[in-house]
């Protein structure tokens, strides 16, 4: 099963109750059960607020911030906010880091192109991959199959960028995504209160 990531992390000074005042809490689940979120999930792990929502990450990934992204930055002016998007089904990724209300880095793209990029590469982007992106034989096969050098460079770029959201998990939770036991990360399902539904 593909593990899709639609995460927003808030580390530092935050007030979860203030953020969720317009929502009603429901069932508690573990991280496994938020893989394909249809509503908002929120919880805490290693002093970090975790929000899982299919739409929220996109609010942070373009030049102009969405209404919810701006509201979060206003609510948590002293926090570090991390946004992680990874969907292997459609080949889309994105990541962003904000510190004390200022955008530090954003990159959002797909297999075909980079849609938006801002700031200098993070340390996580500069680290060598844990394993080779492609074996030498694979690269040779790509050339033999008629792919241009530009097309191969784009495939390598995408493979490298797509791994960054998973690496950023450690920055916020203190542990890498693959070291995390999703059954131990407890989140609560939330739905917007009827009186605050958007029209």
Poorly predicted regions are none
* Whole-number mean pLDDT: 86
Characterize the biggest β-sheet: 9 strands, antiparallel
Helix content: 25-40%
Let me know the number of strands: 9
**Straight-line distance between termini:** 35 Å
Strand order of the largest sheet: 2-9-3-4-1-5-6-7-8
Q: Topology as H/E string?
A: EHEEEHEEEEHHHE
Number of helices: 5
- Shape label: globular
Characterize the structure shown:
Helix content is 26%, strand content 32%. It is an alpha+beta fold and 199 residues long. The chain has a nine-stranded antiparallel β-sheet with strand order 2-9-3-4-1-5-6-7-8, covered by helices on one side.
Tell me the layout of helices and strands.
Blueprint: E1 5-11, H1 16-19, E2 23-30, E3 40-45, E4 48-52, H2 67-75, E5 80-87, E6 92-99, E7 102-110, E8 114-118, H3 123-126, H4 136-144, H5 149-173, E9 186-192
Antiparallel strand pairs: 1-4, 1-5, 2-9, 3-4, 3-9, 5-6, 6-7, 7-8
Task: Summarize the model shown.
This protein has about 200 residues and is of the alpha+beta class. Helices cover about 25% and strands about 30% of the residues.
Tags for this model:
single chain; 199 residues; alpha+beta; 9-stranded antiparallel sheet; 5 helices; globular
